[in-house]
Design brief:
This protein is mainly α. The chain has 2 domains: 218 residues, Serine Threonine Protein Phosphatase 5, Tetratricopeptide repeat (Alpha Horseshoe); 169 residues. The chain is 62% helix and 0% strand. The protein has 26 helices and no strands. The longest helix has 42 residues. The N and C termini lie far apart (94 Å).
Length: 480
């Protein structure tokens, strides 16, 4: 009994030494163990370790150690650990290309071994962007590229982890596989939709070079998954605008745009890009216009007039802050007007004090010196103050800001608040400017005021046209 216990302890120590050697990649220790006990590798399966020595050496990239293990016990390549991962999973994740080659020589079928998360070795390589490993795995088992899991295809993983070079390599290998290119993840996103959702400009630009994906971007536009509509759930920023421009350039339209052509030939809708839908244009465009002018108006419509993003809702906090700041500034201008206030009652402190009988303490000094100009200053200041307070009131009222009428009202209110704040500044500047240089001040202010007026007119016109077009579209849909 004691001899049996001694033998068991000796075997346990030998197995422990084997695992320590796999950690260090000690080929000498491995060879010695095999010479002293040719069955040592076979007894690994009798131990309580979750992994084989090949798992450890593959993870750490000990190539020579792995080769000796595979020579003496090739079945190690098929063994899985407690998470269902074979040594190829670990070597692929770590990017040990030479170890991957050795494992594939032993058994190429392990390329299709799934772990508990339904991941094959190629998935690990793609997630980490291991280019060399990806090439070896594809060469060994090209069909591994077509394996799907909950995250979608390997193309989805490239986009999800933002590995453009891996995406290019994989697309070259599946260029004719339309089914894989249009595969969807658990949320119903194609690889292009996922790239748009994650706002990856480089990946989107490359994916749009694929005819199948460009066509799908248009055909799917009318389904429950819409490419451009994905951007509306994201904050409006430069990246979103850039992506929208890229999609528009290749012919992607919003569903509202496509509603204008309900009888369009389906062959035209699904044809390869570029697609030019000129069969039924909105009634706002003159059909007799030359092609160049018509295209210009179409671009104006699609990019500026028809766009109705949820920017008000997305910038609600910022809008509240700006309106509050404007209200604070205009309030401060009222209680501390240009030129200050009289500190005490006086009959002789100003040239007009005798006219009015007395200049009362706390009243504006310039109200006596320049009464008409001061009234204009206060009028502009008051208008800006109440316009900004109106914006604050609408924002805290709980009204749905996605309503197009509410968006127009808020835009106009903020435009009025900012404009009259600018006029308040101009008149405040004129009130405190000495008379002998007042003309120079006016000559400087006039061009700025004119430019501001033109900009305000353009903004008001565009937003008003948006509202009018929206009302016409809703009226048309109700009549149908």
């Amino acid at each position: 009994m004691e001899m049996k216990t001694t033998t068991t302890n000796l075997e346990d120590e030998t197995i422990k030494t084997l695992y320590n050697a796999s950690l260090n990649g000690s080929v000498t220790t491995l060879n010695t163990l095999i010479q002293n006990n040719p069955l040592i590798l076979h007894k690994v399966s009798l131990s309580l370790y979750n992994e084989t020595p090949l798992h450890i050496s593959s993870l750490l990239g000990h190539l020579q150690f792995c080769e000796i293990l595979l020579q003496n016990k090739p079945s190690f390549a098929n063994e899985v650990d407690s998470k269902g991962r074979c040594p190829l999973h670990l070597a692929s994740a770590e990017g040990h290309t030479e170890v991957v080659k050795a494992l594939l020589l032993a058994n190429q079928d392990v390329c299709l071994v799934f772990d508990k998360d339904d991941m094959i070795p190629l998935h690990f390589a793609v997630i980490r962007g291991r280019m060399g490993v990806i090439k070896e795995l594809i060469n060994a088992r090209p069909d591994s590229v077509r394996v799907l899991n909950d995250d979608g295809s390997v193309l989805h993983l490239c986009v999800l982890y933002n590995h453009l070079e891996s995406l290019k390599l994989l697309l070259e290998s599946v260029r004719v596989d339309k089914q894989l290119l249009l595969a969807k993840d658990r949320e119903g996103n194609t690889v292009l939709h996922l790239a748009i959702k994650l706002k990856q400009i480089k990946n989107i630009k490359y994916l749009l070079l694929q005819p199948e994906l460009r066509t799908s971007a248009i055909t799917l536009n009318r389904s429950s998954i819409k490419t451009l509509e994905l951007l509306e759930s994201c904050p409006r920023d430069f990246i979103s605008l850039k992506i929208e421009e890229m999609l528009t350039e290749v012919g992607v339209q919003r569903s509202t745009q496509m509603d204008y052509a309900p009888h369009m030939d389906s062959a035209v809708q699904h044809a390869p890009l570029p697609i030019i839908s000129n069969q039924e244009q909105p009634s706002q465009f003159n059909q007799e216009l030359p092609n160049g002018r018509r295209k210009m108006w179409e671009n104006l419509w699609s990019k500026y007039l028809q766009f109705q993003g949820n920017w008000i809702e997305e910038t609600r906090g910022t809008l509240m802050l700006v309106a509050t700041v404007i209200a604070t500034m205009t309030f401060q201008s009222t209680i501390s007007p240009p030129g200050g206030v009289w500190q005490e009652n006086t009959h002789t402190g100003g040239r007009n004090c005798t006219t009015y009988g007395i200049c009362e303490a706390g009243t504006a000094v310039l109200a006596y010196a320049w009464p008409h100009e001061f009234i204009k200053f206060m009028t502009y200041n008051t208008t800006s103050f109440f316009s900004s307070l109106g914006v604050v009131l609408l924002l805290i009222s709980g009204f749905p800001l996605k309503n197009k009428v509410m968006m127009w009202v808020l835009t106009m209110a903020m435009s009025v608040a900012v404009t009259f704040m600018a006029l308040t500044f101009v008149f405040a500047q004129s009130l405190v400017t000495p008379y002998h240089i007042i003309q120079q001040d006016f000559s400087m202010a006039y061009p700025v005021v004119v430019a501001w007026g033109i900009l305000l007119l353009v903004i008001g016109l565009i937003h008003t046209l948006r509202l009018v077009f929206w009302v016409k579209v809703r009226t048309k849909k109700k009549m149908q």
